[in-house]
Please model this.
Amino acid sequence: MATVHIPALLRPLTGGTSTMEAAGSTLREVIADVVRQQPKLAGRISDTTGLLPEIMVAIGDTEAKDVDVPVPDGAEIWILPSIAGG
Amino acid sequence: MVTTDKPAYKVIGTRPLRPDGIDKVTGRAVYGSDIHLPGTLYGRIKRSPHAHAIIKRINTAKAEALPGVRGVVTAADFGGDPAALPDVSKNILAGDKVLYRGHAVAAVSAISDLIARQACDLIEVEYEVLEPNLDVREAMLAGAPILHPNMRTRTPAGPSENASNVVAHAAVAFGDADKAFAEEDLVVVEIETKTQMVHQGYIEPQATTAMWNPDGHLTVWTCTQGSFPARASISAILGHPISKIKVIPTEIGGGFGGKIAVYLEPVAALLSKKSGKPVKMTMDRVDVFEGTGPTPGTSIRAKLGATKDGKLRAFYADLAYENGAFAGSAANYATMCIAVGYDIEHVKLDAYDVVVNKPRTQDYRAPSSPAAMFAIEQLIDEMAQKLNIDVETLRMQNICKPGTRGPMGMPHQAPGHEECVRQAMNSEHYKSPLEGPNRGRGTASGFWFNVGLRSSVSVTVQPDGNVSLIEGSTDIGGTRASLAMQLAETLGIAYDDVTPTVVDTDSVGYNDVTAGSRVTFGTGMAVYEAGKNVIKEMTARLAPTWQCPAEDITFEGGTFKNADGSKTGTFKEIAQAVVGRGPGLTASGSVNAGFLQGGGFAHAIVDVEVDPETGKVTILRYTAIQDAGTAIHPSYVEGQMQGGAVQGIGWALNEEYYYDDTGRMANSSYLDYRIPTTLDVPMIDTIIVEVPNPLHPFGVRGVGEPGIVPPLAAIANAISHATGVRQTQLPMNPRRILETTNNGK
Model:
């Protein structure tokens, strides 16, 4: 089980929920469980080709570059909006 | 320069001349408006005189009949999917509504610029004028005129029932700030700030030339911060395949975030398609002010609670950011910056992105962070006064460290804030007394992210052992040099042996924008990878000659060596052998360096003198301190720090979009929109702090943005100490200083 942190920008789709528990041994499975619990997040984190370009996901303090990376039990997962700058 | 720990580099840390320097100082460098093709037509934009109006009708007949006119386009001519980039598209040419004065409604091409301007005057637009929203808080009220009838506020509880100008309400909470404020024995300070829309102030106006060939290939020359994203936008807006569009980036005379978005490019392309001729479009300064993307004005209410011995416990902020005429996420950025420098257990933020009848805002150096820090860094200063603690000591008591909650909730890895403040406290400036009447000293910190994103480069080894570096990141701040230096360091050769060139979108792999302080960092990683690939290929070619397995050959410090050290050769010697007398060698490097790459902190100490009779604030002394991770080219790092400081000084003291009640900007020229000159600021002293970034092979952090963040609050704090009156509104110009320090008399 992993703890998944939802960014403020996506909380309108989760009824304000900012943190949730989700199951899965890979990031793909964890995201699927997140979407199962919060269906409005479908297509807002990943699609069939992988993570959306405007979303990044960090497992612990390491950025996940694709959805097939393993997720250790008890991991803290951060779903984050993209950022650039000026 | 203060370095915590770094390897002994040969090239990194030196101060060589920039490769593009001679072209720029001699005027040979080609900027956006320098493109001249045979048969070029001139394009002009017809803009709205109203801040908020429904377009009832556009009649272009008289313009089209004017001799010399070759084409007129409106939004109806866009061929892309209406769902793709709808706001960008409607911002470039308005559809059924204009949402700010200066909003483009049509465009003309003609054989001369004069005829194009005359034709614009002949385009008849019938408007139904509506009441404008010009204040961010008033636009949030029920009953305010609505810009977008279909817009509903995105809130944690779901979309709002009624149409609203509030794009989104983002709620962020760590711990329980309400409870801490209510139940803990805290000293509390509060502030309500207001800042105005300001412009990036780049010197070169937007300029582009487009040539649509009959075979469907479109070539666009433009001064842009991102040729690849520009290509993607043009493709989406026009519905034209991305593979048939080539964007050639020209030199760029400043951007600071303002040249990320496209404005003229799709319009010039349409006009070229209509006429079969190349079409050149340039903006004048009024176009730039009224028709491009400044940074938002803000209204922030904040309070900070601390124990009597100076432990920060709780922070709350209500942040409203103008997004201009279309939706954006400026306030959300602010939530990620405002409390990031300190270890505060309880943080609660309510952030509102709001549309108003002003230009669609764009990023400006560390977008959203300066206004947020204008609030919290004044609270830090006031808290220190209230607790009778030295302000830097208060910061150090509460400063973020590795493991402290970071900008998005994740723990900081190696924040340089602590070292920045420590160096400030150790500086000669901070230790020197400030004497004299009406003088005050202020300090403040700032933060901005450091993103990586996607970059590609290629490196070709020339027969003489020199190398060519092909890159696609447009060079705004000296990145040709900073990338060439990283390649030279990787290959163990001299900086002068690397020739960097910025090329078009057909000639190198994908590169994201030159923004987010990312090129020296992210493209630097691609350069490092390409360099390693060059070494790998040279090693493979060398192995048969040295009659040993490639695995037995090492490369260190610029020298190839076999296992027993009996055979050695420098990079150049080996290159001449394996490339000079062999097939060509080109290697590439492509990375997706992601989003979160360490971030950067900056700090400032400023001394001011306030004239009690005129209200004029004079900057007596300014020291900028910033964590650069590893300073690749210290002179350019210092330049970025000084440039950010000067822009922040202008923002603090003079700059603002000044509107009348109808939504007309009253100061859309550099005569009336006052940016600082060399006569207005002293030498900006710099202290480069180097806390190497563990996420980069050379420890680099982006340095382009954090320097603009501290000046607003630092100057406000200094004025407060000089006058005894806290400044809560920008700009802190003479009128405002007199009004606040002299009761308006």
Q: What stands out?
A: The radius of gyration of chain B is 27 Å.
